[in-house]
Automatic annotation (TrEMBL):
This is Uncharacterized protein. Residues 1-22 are annotated as: Disordered. Keywords: Membrane, Transmembrane, Transmembrane helix. The chain crosses the membrane at residues 28-50, 70-90, 135-154.
């Protein structure tokens, strides 16, 4: 038996192994997941921009201060339930609102999204900030929190999100200019 390789075989590079189905699926789904995440965060940022002034006023009510004091006395797992239950009830409102928009009911869609965001910003975000130190004492929560915040930081630095952020800033500046001009026009009309 001849154990020497055929001529030229030593110079041939080893043929690359075909990608595994799992890595191929991962490479195909990553852009799709990124697109959905960008759309989700863009919708969230837009709703937050619209709802934030109202949420600030609601958060100043004495009832919210007492609720925050009560929530601060809870342990880690009751705090987790207090944050997750309203979040689980409110997050499906965005797809429902988008569906209402898509089916020709933009006012209902806007009302659902804005209402859910208003409750989420005033209640869930406030609860999360109150409960965060306790939640981070739960090992698996802290592990997930670190990874999710790192992923969100990465996502915010992607080109589509940076472009969306620039667009949102431009829209915000345009809305302020239009608002100032309308306000000026109304004042002039009132004097005339």
């Amino acid at each position: 038996m001849n154990s020497t390789p055929p001529p030229g075989a030593q110079n041939r590079p080893a043929s690359p192994e075909p990608p595994s189905p799992r890595s191929l699926l991962s490479r195909l789904l990553r852009p799709v997941a990124t697109l959905f995440a960008v759309a989700y965060f863009l919708l969230d940022a837009l709703a937050y921009w619209v709802v934030r002034p109202v949420a600030r006023r609601i958060a100043r009510l004495p009832l919210f201060a007492r609720f925050g004091q009560w929530a601060a006395r809870l342990g880690p797992y009751p705090s987790l339930v207090l944050v997750l239950v309203p979040l689980a009830l409110l997050e499906p409102a965005k797809p429902v609102g988008a569906w209402l928009f898509a089916t020709g009911r933009p006012m209902a869609g806007a009302a659902v999204i804005i209402g859910a965001e208003l409750v989420k910003i005033t209640l869930v975000e406030r609860l999360f900030h109150i409960a965060k130190p306790k939640l981070l004492t739960i090992g698996w929560f802290a592990w997930g929190y670190v990874r999710v915040t790192a992923w969100i930081a990465w996502l915010k630095e992607t080109a589509p999100v940076r472009a969306a952020r620039r667009l949102l800033i431009a829209v915000r500046q345009f809305a302020r200019r239009v608002g100032r001009r309308l306000s000026l026009m109304v004042r002039r009309a009132g004097r005339g």
